[in-house]
């Protein structure tokens, strides 16, 4: 049995009602330390039910614009929509569904190693009145024939893959001649170090402050904080790589990509965004007012614009996100 089937069976035996309802128990975490692909399924199946809320994912104009802008920043605006698209590591469908709504993609296939994520993506598509095909697959061994798609996409996915170069070889294989690969939102080495340090400091400050008597009703219940701590433990297993832009370009060329290009984004925006996400994970949902969310998002937008303006004088490697594109 392959890793996707094996992990799904493990989850089903823990809770026959739903893969997505399964928490990451101490036993799950212990087993996953020695099997990164099992860890990917356990972690992402567990995350599937709350992933959109955690990362502020939506399918309205805000995220349609964000997905389109990330795509266009690295690959340019296509003269005509891509007829068929395959997404690896699709999660709950953020990239595919928003690119379909933006008119960049006509027909989408979503894949993920997590059955729970694929199910969530298909539900999101149905809610939008869109149709996507979807199945749980390993990105390093895609079950599609050569030259099957006009476009292969991914968002925040290749840092989870044990063999990134093999995954790109598979992407090259399934793209038709003249097609394109677009992978966005991957962490750089420097950016990831800064983000994790800021997140740890924010988590400590928030959880310490909310233990004070006059702030205790701001804290999330202890069981939710414990779940977040277990998630953080599994993140150490599922987040496998960070990238140097030049080295990523070289890797994609070795895998067979042509006209390879990278673009980096988010400097001060990441310094703001990661503490905000961490704080929101530590505070009760009802305390997070609409005014707070609007302020946080607008601040991120303003800082992102600042980051674009200083790019001529700031090395690419210092930015948090790197995206890469190649033709076939």
Automatic annotation (TrEMBL):
Keywords: Methyltransferase, Transferase
Name the record gives this protein: Class I SAM-dependent methyltransferase
GO BP terms, alphabetized: methylation
One Pfam family hit: Methyltransf_11
One GO molecular-function entry: methyltransferase activity
Native organism: Aeromicrobium halocynthiae
Stretches assigned to the Methyltransferase type domain: 86-183
